[in-house]
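Supplementary Text 2. Reproducibility record for the structural model of the 460-residue chain.

All settings were left at their defaults, and a single model was retained for analysis rather than an ensemble. We include the record here because the model underlies the residue-level annotations in Supplementary Table 4.
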Amino acid sequence: MNPSIFKAYDIRGIYPGELNEKSAYQIGRAFVAYLIENEPERPEKFVIGRDGRASSPVLSRAFGQGVADAGVDVLDIGLVPVDEVYFASGRFNWPAAMVTASHNPKEYNGFKLMKKGADVIGIDSGLSDIAKIAMSKNWPEMEEGFGESVEIKRGSVTEQSITDEYSRHVLSFADIPNLRPMRVAIDAGSGAAGPALEEILKKLPLECTRLYFEPDGDFPYHGPNPVLPENLEALKNEIRRHHYHFGCAFDGDGDRIVFVDENGETVSSSVIGALMARHFLKSEPRGKIVHSAITSRVVPEIAAIYGGEAIRERVGHTYISRRLRETGGVFGMETSGHYYFRKNFYADSGIIAFLVMLNILSGQKKSLSALAAEFSKYASMPEKNFKVENPDEFIKKIARNFEGYDLDWLDGLTVRTNDFWINLRPSHTEPVVRLNAEAKDEMTLARVKSDLLALVEKFR
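Retained model, structure tokens:
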């Protein structure tokens, strides 16, 4: 088994070269072995779902068979957005897995694992132990009729939809009687969110233009990452040609969402996070808001204005979700388009974020662009990535040029002044260093960016 598939937040690799049916089976069995060793009670039930990638059905089947061979019954809920798996894990209080590579290109696949209660697992919260178990065991291989030599009673695998119950759950976030009629355009990106959205849209007073709602693992129209500008062009062109209140786009497994205003312009995820933070703090003034280390200053400022407490955390869904759970926070967000909700078992959901935005716009007489303008008080640069041989050493060299500044190392290097902040951090998913920066105005940002890029070139 290739150890490189075990990432900081999940399991991911190219199919079938790095990740295949055999490794999926081994990981399924290893996950159960980990749970038996580390949880108070042996799991009796397990949930598995999958995205629409071509390799997902066979990987889901192999993983589920590994779990069943370990003596645990499996509920296979089929092709669903990842937040439906989070819901199932939280609602039934069972451990679960989602077969997905999220926003990665079509040749990738992987697994998001969680303990019961939708408690997601990362490399420092159990995933490294699961990797060790999976790579150290030699369970029977699938093609040899795996399981025949297993002495424990094999669990069953049952296929059953929970879409109706999931739809009721997510719709509980929408104030349906007070939603105003709106025209929206939604790009489901040929991913797993499309079928789930179809059921939910039936209950809403919306006129909706649907783009690429049919799941297709080849992603024939554009890539599954809506954060990349080129993947938003179809949605933006649709909005610019016709009149809509707003648009949104989902990633491959539906947990990431990007919003586009009525003019066809992308709205910053930090601005969306600030709008949602204000929305939740209006009803819970002392609530806690968890945000990633590279979020705009506007989010903690809005939290303070509305009596909340902003908590800064490392980038990554395992870190944000865990911190939100630990603190009992009401809402969490990342700049990559992930939004987390306490009433969603502290997990993220693109569809719930869409419904919350409907609530926000229904309670205002302003357009999305006008609301966003109120929170767009800082200048920021798009994230830049740099390939370097030794990311940690590279960042340390950059840090020496900022001696005397306010530095912190929560997530890579963050340098803060009254006029700007910068963050350099090693990626947990790619061999690159990521650079983010924000300043009080465009002139300051241009100067900071120029100085930073000169340092990058000096030490690469």
